[in-house]
Amino acid sequence: MSAARSLALAALLAVASCGGPGGPEPAPDRLDLGGADDLSGFARATAPVPLRFAEDHGPHFEYQTEWWYWTGHLADGAGRAYAFQFTIFRRGLSPGPPPAGPGLRTNQVYFAHLAITDEHGDRHVFAERWARGAAGLAAAAAQPFRVHVDDWEATGLDAAGAVRIRARHADFGLALELAPQKPPVLHGDRGLSPKSDEPGNASFYVSLTRMSAHGRIRLDGRELAVRGESWFDHEWSTSALGPDAEGWDWFSLQLDDGRELMFFVIRRRDGGIEPASGGTLVERDGTTRHLGPRDVLVQARAHWTSPGTGARYPASWTLRVPSERLELRLEPLVADQEMRTSIVYWEGAVRVDGQAAERPVAGRGFVELSGYHAPMQGLF
Asked: What's the whole-model pTM score?
């Protein structure tokens, strides 16, 4: 069976769920997303293009891989802290939009990840769903914006990027409204974010780095009113990673001085760092500064080994931006925030403290660690 047929069959049969502790068995060792070597007809991210909003918040079917990603930190009325991740992925089996009309025939597969971290309870719960992009099971549209997998969905509320997200699995879930506090950030070169020196190994990458958040989360079957702040990433590409890439360490930080920092380090198989690694510093007024691989120094201070998969991850960090006289220390809210889904990775909420120009600074953020369980090559 070809990889593409294998994935299509998996999507048809496995509108799947993977739970946290006490849930179903962990995901398989390796997900075959299909078609990684056959890029015929797919567009490549080779040069900046004009990005228009709200249209570009929607899908880009000419590219093979795309995801919409929301994370955030929340608190209930008693001050108890929570964090969430909600991501919807799209994978094209062939270029172009899905065929119109009824029936199950499609060239698109979607999957989604949901996670809630309860800092006080020292726990992290997660789930996954799959569906094929047909018969109303899953779809993405630009105007009006909506992307969904079954009843897990994100629905646009205005052209600026405000959105309502909703997902529920067993006894946990969320229903939140998010509204941007700053304009879109175009990472890299006007939104073109290279991942290696080879032309086309790049993505288009847009963020809303600070969004207000309010609504409700569900945990242990109880509904809790919450408020806080969120972050949105939207990326689309075809074969973004270079041939020697193993995975990445990605940081998204919201500081209490009104700035945000995004930075990613692509790790190579030989132990080196991909020169295309980089990021963006977002100022209080929304202006941005591109950061190259030498502008940010990342040091892991501890490690954690997953009891579920045996993967060994960095577990706390120091980030330095010498030109900004910025030094930040990051600590996970909960040690075990590994996503044991079809793609195994660590996606965790962190607290931040440190100094900015010798003045105290604090904040919150998320860290994503991929390729520690199995290489990411061929997936993105």
From this structure: 0.91
